[in-house]
Structure formats: C-alpha cells, structure tokens
Amino acid sequence: MKISMYTMAVDSYTPMLESLSALIDKGATHAEKLQLALADARLAPDMFTLAQQIQLSCYHATDGVARLTGKPATAPPPAPTTLTEMKQLIAHTVETVSRCSPSDFDGAEELDCSIPSRMGGVLGMNGLQFLRAWSLPHFYFHVVTAYDILRHNGVAIGKLDYLSQVGKFLRPA
Question: What does the pLDDT read at residue 97?
Fold first, then answer.
C-alpha cells in the first residue's frame, strides 16, 4: 500500500489541531478558575509563549499544505493574544487545511520545496523531504510545546488528551 502525501499531511495536521483545540479548552477552564494569563506562559525565558506556539503550529500546517499543493509559501499569521483567539486560529487552520483534496497533492513528492536558510544558503528539499524533515517535525514540536506549557501551568491534561484521535482506533480485543 502506498501512502499519499495528502494523507501524511492533512490527516496528520487536522486531528492534532483538533486535539490542540481541546487542550486550549481545558486550559481556558483552568485559567478561569485560577485567574491565570496562559497566553504569555512559556517553559523557559528564551522560549516562545503559548500564543506563539499556537501561531507556529497553525503556520506550519498551512504553509506545509500550501507548498505541497504548489502554492506560494505562506507567512505566519499574527500571534493570538487570548485563548479565544487561539481557538479561532486553530479552527481557521483546520478549515483551510481540510479544504484541500487528495488530487491537490498530485506530484507533491517531487515539488521543489526549498527554503531559504537564516544562516545563508538554501535548504534544498523536494516535497517528500520537506514534509518528512521540516514541516511535520516543526508542527509537532510546537503542538507538544503548547501541551507542555499548559501542563507546566497545572492544566489537568495527559497523553490521551494529546493523542485524542487514537480513540477511533480502539476496538474490542
């Protein structure tokens, strides 16, 4: 069985973004009870805030889909400033990513998805290399860091919240 680029991209981004939205819901409930300002929370002084982690999670999903469907690279959206804005950005990202069809990804494996490097030069990647080595790793990094920020701030979440999409695979033994 051959796996499609559509499946690897859209079917990876979408359920994780939906889990991220549910994590934000739990964070909002927790923040309301304790009067916490979670949007600016971070794990370490030199790391991005929760708002920036959400921003970059959404950016890597939309940029990944854009590049893999032959569209121009996208710019990161403005960082949300509230938990409500985070939910709205995630919902918009899910809608954008879900609008693509499998045929939009025809030939994606071989597309030139090179990225200018901040250190000079170019990261020369085709679509498969871009998805596997750049887009998905960055996406998951920011999603899990958002999870970690929430957890670090006392939100009662666990691995099943992060991997909420695996419940659909549960079956009797």
Answer: 97
Q: Which amino acid is at 111?
A: L
- Model's pTM, two decimal places? 0.94
How does residue 170 score in pLDDT terms, banded at 50, 70 and 90? confident
Domain count, the chain: 1
Q: What are phi and psi of 116, to 5 degrees?
A: -60, 135
CB environment 129-156: b (16+ within 10 A), e (fewer): ebbeebbbebbeebbebbbbbbbebebe
Chain length of the chain: 173
Residues paired with residue 156 on neighbouring β-strands, in sequence order: none
DSSP 41-56: --SSTTS--HHHHHHH
Q: CA angle 123-57-19, nearest 5°? A: 140
Residue 130: CATH number of its domain: 1.20.120.450
**Mapping DSSP to helix (H, G, I), strand (E, B) and coil, where does residue 77 land?**
coil
